[in-house]
Amino acid sequence: MTEFAPTLTEKTAAAPKAELHIHIEGSLEPELIFRLAERNGVKLAYNSIDALRAAYAFTDLQSFLDIYYAGASVLLTEQDFYDMTMAYCERALADNVVHTEIFFDPQTHTERGVAIDVVVAGIERALADAEQRGLSSKLILCFLRHLPEEDALATFDAALPLFDRYRHRLIGVGLDSSERGHPPSKFERVFAKARAKGLKLVAHAGEEGPPSYVYEALDLLKVDRVDHGVRSIEDPALVTRLADTRVALTVCPLSNLKLCVFDDLTKHTLKALLDEGVAVTVNSDDPAYFGGYVNENYRATVEALQLTDAEVYTIIRNSFEASFVTDAERDALIARLDAHWHANAIT
Ligand code: ADE
Ligand code: ZN
User: Fold this and answer.
1) Is the distance from the beta carbon of residue 285 to the nearest atom of ligand 1 less than 6 Å?
2) 4 CA to middle of ligand 2, Å?
3) Which pLDDT score, from 0 to 100, does residue 3 have?
4) What's the pLDDT score for residue 176?
5) I want to staple 175 with a disulfide (CB 3.0 to 4.6 A). Which of 65, 101, 203, 313 is the partner?
C-alpha cells in the first residue's frame, strides 16, 4: 500500500460506471430554470433562485412532483432540451459515467403544446455531442402514470416514427410519476404494444408503492428492470425471485432520503437487497432536486451502509450488466471497470 492509495469513495468516484435511472427533467438546476424562464418569457412562481431552492423540502413523492413539473414548464424550444441535456452530460462525465440511460416525460411537454419531435431532437443532439466525448447513452420514453392509459397509448402512437428514426438511441419505454393509486396494471395494454415493437421495458415500482406493484411490473408489464423497487424487501418471496432472475433494481438512495421513503440513509434497504443477491445499482433519479449526482449517491451510500470494496465493485458491475447495450459493449465496459478496480488498492 502506498501513501497515495485512494479511499473507497475516491476509487468509486474515479471508476467508470453506468447510470440507469435519471429523469432528464430532474437534472434542471435552478440556475438553468431561471435562465430558460428569462429566455422564453415564462413566469415562475418563485422570484429568485434561492426562493426556488428553499421550496425543495419534500415530504413525499407528490410534493416533489408538483415542483418538478413546474420547473419543466420553462422548456419550450429544441435548444432548451439541448441545453438541459448537455448540462447533465457535463455532470455525468465529471463523475466518470461512461454510459447513461436517460428517461424523459413527453407528456409533460406535449400538454403545453411542445411537439414530441422538438423534445427528442434537442435531447438527441446533446447526446450525440456527448458521445464524441466518451459518454454513450440510450433514451427511454416514460408514460405519466397519473394520466389515463388512453393518453399513454396516444403518446406511444405519436412516438412511433421516432422509435424508428432514433432507433440507435430511443430503445425503450418506462412508467413514472405518482405511484400510489396508479398500479402497473393500469398500463398493461400500452406496455404490450411496446413489447410487440421489440422495445425494452422498465417501470417505477416499489418506491412508495407496495411489493404487489413490483409483482405487477414483472408479471403484467414484463419489465426488464424495476426502477427503485426498494420496498421489495418487505416480501421475501419477491426478493428471492429478483435474485434468481437477476432483474435489476435501479436504486436512487438520495432520492429515497429526500422523498422520505427512509428517514435516514442508514435504514436504506440497498445493502439488505445486495446481501440477498439482488442486482441493485446506484443512480441519481433527479439530481438537481435531491442534492447529488451519481458520485454523491455512491459516496453517501458507501458511508451510511458501510459498503466494502467488493460490494461497491458488484454494484458498479451490476450497472453494466443491467444496461441495454450489446453484449460486446457490455464486455468492453466491464473490462474497463476491472482494469480500474484492480489497479487501485484502497487505504
Ligand atoms: N419522475 C421523476 N422522478 C420520479 C420519481 N422518483 N418517481 C416517480 N416519478 C418520477
Ligand atoms: Zn425515477
Assistant:
1) yes
2) 37
3) 60
4) 98
5) 203
Contact 286 CB / ligand 1 (< 6 Å): yes
pLDDT band at 347; cut points 50, 70, 90 = confident
Residue 1 has pLDDT above 50, yes or no: no
Rounded to two decimals, what is the model's pTM? 0.98
Domains of the chain are 15-343 (3.20.20.140)
Does the beta carbon of 177 sit less than 6 angstroms from any atom of ligand 1? yes
What is the rounded end-to-end Cα distance, in angstroms, of the chain?
7
* Stretch 134-154: mean pLDDT: 98
Q: Measured between alpha carbons, how far is residue 285 from residues 159, 335, 346 in Å? A: 23, 26, 28
Ligand 1 centroid distance, CA of 322 (Å): 20
Q: How confident is the model at residue 275 (pLDDT cuts 50, 70, 90)?
A: very high
* Residue 286 Cα to ligand 1 middle (Å): 8
Stretch 80-104: mean pLDDT: 99
